[in-house]
Amino acid sequence: MSDDAKTTPKRSRDSISNTLIVAIGVSFVCSILVASAAILLKPRQLQNEEEYRQRIILDVAGLYDPGADLATLYSSIEETMTELASGELAPVYLVMDGARTEQVILPIEGAGLWSTMYGYLAVENDGNTVRGLRFYSHAETPGLGDQVDKPAWREQWQGKKLYGPDGEPQIEVVKGPAPDESDYQIDGLAGATLTGRGVSVFVRHWIGEDGYGPYLKTLGEEESR
Questions:
Q1: 194: which residues sit within 8 A by CB, 6+ positions away?
Q2: Cβ–Cβ under 8 Å, residues 116 and 42
Q3: 189: which of 62, 111, 143, 177 is 20 to 30 A away, CA to CA?
Q4: Are residue 46 and residue 89 in the same domain, yes or no?
Q5: What is the pTM of this model?
Q6: What are phi and psi of 17, to 5 degrees?
Q7: With contact defined as beta carbons under 8 Å apart, do 48 and 70 qualify?
Q8: Same domain for 40 and 95?
Q9: Which residue range(s) make up the domain with 21?
Q10: Residue of 209, 112, 122 whose CA lies nearest to 169
């Protein structure tokens, strides 16, 4: 054996370069596994999101039954589009009783105190009477703004009127308790006045002339014929 061979040091398995190679290899394999899992699970994720959306729509319409088949329940919902004043097309969900529209579910969204709030508003076929309100996504303050999710608060919306005798939006969340005889007012959210005010503002927007107002007016006229 030559003197050079004898004096050349062997690379340590614990050297920095070996450690880096192993770390890079492990990271590469993990990234492949994560990416593969994301691709494989994407269809299931989309299906779960769609089923959740359908449950919320059925729930706000008062039609959801946890023990029933979701697809069967949702078959009573007809999805369509309507044109807003801006020219934008917006989705509308109709609850049908044969050829007759029983109620309509409208997607609504707007600013609360801390977040954009997303939900659905269900309206009777007179285009004026509220059947229900349900938010499915928001980040309002736990214990305060998230009172919008409480069944007792949501139930207050049932039977309320959206428009006054002049045809203008009148529905609102007030500060403090609403008068028992009021057709338009909902109890305020204790400690979350700004969240309640935000709900009033964007609900009125969506039922106004720039939102679904013309659609609801037409719906009410057709029902009254």
A1: 112, 113
A2: no
A3: 62
A4: no
A5: 0.79
A6: -65, -40
A7: no
A8: no
A9: 15-75
A10: 209
CA distance 137 to 117: 6
- Give the three-class secondary structure for 147: helix
Number of domains the chain is built from: 2
Q: What are 12-41's pLDDT values in tens digits?
A: 555 777 777 777 878 777 777 777 766 766
Q: Residue 117: CB partners within 8 Å, gap ≥ 6?
A: 109, 110, 111, 135, 137, 138, 140, 148, 198, 199, 202
Residue with tokens 């492949």: 32
Q: 148 and 102, same structural domain?
A: yes
Quick one: which H or E segment has residue 3? Answer: helix 3-7
Closest CA to 104 of 224, 201, 223, 225: 223
pLDDT in tens, 140-199: 999 888 899 999 999 999 999 999 999 999 999 999 999 988 999 999 998 989 999 999
Same domain? For 66 and 22 the reply is yes
Residues in the chain: 225
